[in-house]
């Protein structure tokens, strides 16, 4: 491959403002095509930039220099894109370039011509039943009308998608089509999707401005697709959008529009929810069912109880927490994700995208339409049938457009008699009263809320990028972070304090700690006196295991709101994680002053004292827990270990014997009991217990590693090196 073939390298040069080098490479790339106009434009830009460099070298000042430089930068981007497209159009076999070559040989209809065909459809479909009395003739005519309409709509999609750059005339004609009251809303939706997909191939400022115009369309079906397109364009072209004054002027108005701000944040959450799609399917198979069988290991192998943070240890004073611990809560989480708009049906319908309908790219973006020629014979138009279960399902906002088509195609594969029987049975089982029918008819008169429309559309996009047979030829937007708050062109809207706080809390609640850290930091810039923000930022770092950083934020929260129990507990936990028991003990003692009867706290204090080898003090706390706790096994493990390391072997034996009589002794119970019996001279019993521990380990190597962790303690109790290693061989 030629060194100039890589467009990414050229773009990186432009982004780094190494414009002269970038122009050399753009010229080299363009020289491999036969587009002389393109090469002339590149040479003209090189000449202009050379003149600017000469003037600058001579110390000549130009008040318009910044404006001229920005214009040259954006022109360089445009020329690089065009050179890349021209180069690939003669070499790539991707569908995009196949269509480009086809359109060179057979240009598609113009926008006015396509508009005329689409407008005729609305009138023709309404008048056809009036022109023919014969039902069969009517159906033939309707089929022809639908087929002609679909052909025109597909041509419109492909024309827009493959247009490298609109000229001013084309942009004006496209806006005229957008504003036509005779073109159906569904057709406009497909056009908006085509513009969005085109912008993923090549940035065109006129297409981007078209999306801004489409967002102002009165129908939410259109404007919601437009704002999703605006968001996608921002993710991939924000550094270019801000170079165009005409775009900045319109965005400055939108960035101050409360409706746009709220709408954009909704889109952001819906894009983030797409991360859950694959997780939902995996959760049952890989988390919930295995968790039922799982016997969690010990995180404190010495004294045998879990010394880490509570998995649900967020500050109870924070609002709107989602409990995610336990199997029931995991199931509830899936339900909550569905209610929040998560895509829970992807895996269900993924196998139903093999129908011929989905071989054409444009069909993935069709709003569901009963008049579509592929399904018109199924949906029917009978007034009574319209209230069948089938129609209720197709009217539902639960499924996205793509899945509704899949459902219809699946029904059409069934024998007609079986299909009608099933639909009839569903209709009988779900018979509706006249009042309910009236309510449904009334609801049908109004559009679905914007949030439902954008959610369905994003689900449609997800299916396209994940399931289309030629998906490898496209950029998969769902493989990227989709972090709109990082985009310069819409940053003002995304960083609106009230909406940003909602977004940050949502991300925080869903455990995206890296992103939550970024957003809370942005909120902190204008609110440094809010201790809750410092707590939450500290919590994100704690969950990411950056305990040093977490301590910094928790200490700042402690300065603003001294001696908060929650903050003290997390300060103690971070010190414990950093193996700093003395500092951890200091904060646990502060908590103890307020919660003297907290038995979990007593265990944690005891752990710190064990780490400091203050065993007698630790035992006092463990005995307290043993006496007061209804389930004192953790305390008994700790007492047994402390007794062993302080030479009280009979005491240790008593406690380990109790633990081994429980229904499910742990690995460390058998291991530590083996140590005790070995020290008491009962080697046969010790080997028996070590064997039990070994059987519970994944492998002998795991057992040996666990056994040797105690080597220093065994040596302190008088074991010799030989004793330790010979015993291991006795277990073979």
Would you write up a description of this structure?
The protein has 732 residues and is mainly alpha-helical. It has 38 helices and no strands. The longest helix has 28 residues, at 135-162.
Instruction: Calculate the terminal CA-CA distance, rounded to whole Å.
Output: 60 Å
Helix % is 55-70%
DSSP E strands, number: 0
Instruction: Indicate the multimeric state.
Output: single chain
Topology overview:
Elements: H1 7-15, H2 19-30, H3 36-57, H4 65-89, H5 95-105, H6 111-131, H7 135-162, H8 168-178, H9 185-201, H10 205-215, H11 220-241, H12 245-254, H13 258-273, H14 276-293, H15 327-340, H16 346-349, H17 376-379, H18 389-395, H19 401-412, H20 416-429, H21 434-444, H22 450-467, H23 491-494, H24 497-509, H25 513-524, H26 531-543, H27 547-560, H28 565-577, H29 581-594, H30 599-611, H31 615-628, H32 633-645, H33 649-660, H34 667-679, H35 683-696, H36 700-708, H37 711-716, H38 721-730
């Amino acid at each position: 491959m030629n060194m100039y073939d890589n467009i990414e390298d050229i773009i990186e040069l432009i982004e780094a403002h190494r414009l002269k080098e970038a122009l050399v490479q753009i010229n080299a790339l363009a020289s491999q095509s036969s587009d002389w106009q393109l090469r002339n434009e590149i040479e003209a830009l090189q000449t202009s930039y050379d003149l600017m460099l000469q003037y600058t070298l001579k110390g000549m000042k130009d008040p318009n220099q910044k404006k001229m430089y920005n214009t040259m930068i954006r022109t360089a981007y445009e020329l690089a894109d065009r050179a890349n497209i021209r180069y690939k159009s003669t070499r790539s076999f991707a569908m995009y370039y196949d269509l480009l070559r086809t359109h060179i040989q057979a240009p598609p209809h113009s926008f006015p011509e396509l508009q005329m065909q689409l407008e005729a459809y609305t009138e023709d479909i309404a008048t056809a039943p009036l022109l023919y009395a014969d039902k069969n003739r009517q159906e033939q005519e309707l089929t022809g009308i639908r087929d002609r309409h679909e052909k025109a709509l597909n041509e419109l999609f492909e024309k827009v998608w493959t247009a490298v750059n609109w000229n001013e005339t084309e942009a004006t004609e496209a806006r005229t089509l957008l504003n036509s009251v005779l073109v159906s809303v569904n057709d406009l939706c497909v056009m908006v999707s085509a513009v969005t997909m085109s912008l993923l191939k090549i940035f065109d400022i006129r297409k981007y401005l078209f999306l801004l115009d489409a967002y102002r369309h009165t129908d939410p079906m259109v404007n919601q697709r437009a704002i999703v397109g605006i968001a996608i364009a921002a993710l991939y072209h924000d550094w270019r959008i801000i170079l165009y004054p005409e775009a900045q002027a319109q965005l400055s108005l939108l960035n101050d529009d409360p409706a746009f701000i709220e709408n954009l944040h909704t889109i952001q959450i819906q894009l983030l929810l797409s991360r859950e799609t694959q997780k939902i399917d995996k959760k049952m198979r890989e988390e919930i069912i295995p968790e039922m069988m799982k016997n969690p290991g010990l995180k404190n192998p010495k004294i045998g109880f879990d010394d880490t943070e509570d998995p649900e240890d967020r500050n109870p004073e924070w609002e709107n927490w989602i409990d995610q611990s336990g199997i029931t809560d995991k199931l509830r989480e899936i339900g909550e994700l569905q209610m929040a708009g998560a895509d829970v049906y992807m895996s269900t319908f993924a196998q139903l995208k093999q129908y011929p309908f989905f071989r054409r790219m444009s069909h993935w973006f069709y709003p569901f339409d009963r008049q579509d020629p592929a399904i018109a014979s199924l949906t029917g138009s009978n007034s009574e049938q319209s209230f069948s279960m089938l129609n209720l399902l197709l009217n539902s906002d639960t499924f996205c457009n793509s899945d509704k088509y899949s459902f219809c195609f699946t029904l059409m594969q069934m024998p007609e008699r079986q299909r009608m029987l099933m639909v009839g049975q569903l209709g009988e089982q779900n018979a509706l009263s006249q009042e309910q029918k009236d309510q449904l008819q009334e609801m049908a008169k109004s559009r679905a809320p914007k949030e439902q429309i954008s959610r369905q559309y994003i689900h449609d996009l997800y299916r396209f990028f994940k399931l289309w047979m030629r998906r490898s030829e496209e950029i998969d937007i769902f493989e990227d972070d989709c972090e709109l708050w990082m985009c310069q062109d819409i940053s003002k809207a995304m960083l609106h304090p009230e909406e940003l706080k909602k977004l940050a809390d949502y991300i925080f609640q869903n455990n995206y700690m890296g992103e939550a850290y970024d957003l809370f930091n942005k909120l902190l810039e204008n609110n440094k006196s809010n201790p809750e923000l410092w707590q939450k930022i500290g919590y994100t770092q704690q969950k990411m295991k950056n305990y040093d950083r977490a301590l910094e934020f928790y200490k700042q929260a402690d300065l603003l709101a001294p001696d908060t129990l929650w903050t003290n507990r997390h300060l103690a936990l971070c010190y414990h994680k950093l193996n700093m028991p003395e500092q951890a003990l200091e904060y646990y003692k502060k908590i103890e002053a307020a919660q003297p009867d907290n038995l979990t706290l007593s265990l944690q204090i005891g752990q710190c004292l064990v780490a400091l080898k203050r065993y007698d003090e630790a035992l006092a706390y463990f005995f307290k827990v043993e006496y007061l706790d209804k389930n004192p096994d953790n305390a008994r493990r700790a007492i047994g270990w402390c007794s062993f390391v302080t030479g009280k072997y009979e005491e240790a034996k008593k406690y380990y014997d109790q633990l081994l009589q429980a229904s499910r002794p742990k690995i460390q119970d058998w291991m530590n009991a083996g140590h005790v019996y070995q020290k008491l001279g009962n080697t046969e019993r010790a080997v028996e217990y070590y064997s039990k521990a070994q059987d519970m380990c994944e492998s002998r190597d795991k057992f040996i590693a666990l056994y040797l962790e105690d080597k220093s303690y065994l040596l302190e109790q008088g074991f010799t090196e030989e004793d330790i290693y010979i015993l291991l061989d006795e277990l073979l």
